[in-house]
Design a protein that fits this description.
alpha+beta, flat
Length: 75
Amino acid sequence: MKQIAVIYHSAQGHTAYVARMIIEGIANVPGTEAQLLEPGALVTAADALFGQHSAETLQRLHCQAQVPAKLEVRQ
């Protein structure tokens, strides 16, 4: 079974709504299981999401998620 974590932050509820709709869509795909998480839950649910090497995985994800200094805009 594929496991998917939808991680979101929502200040006014709009992104939370979209995240819930994504979860509903995933629920319609056979062989998938989805979990809706806010960023703070990564700290408490890291072992469940990433296994025994959760600290290393989170560090690697953080390093990969860095935004480049200059974004290229294509038209």
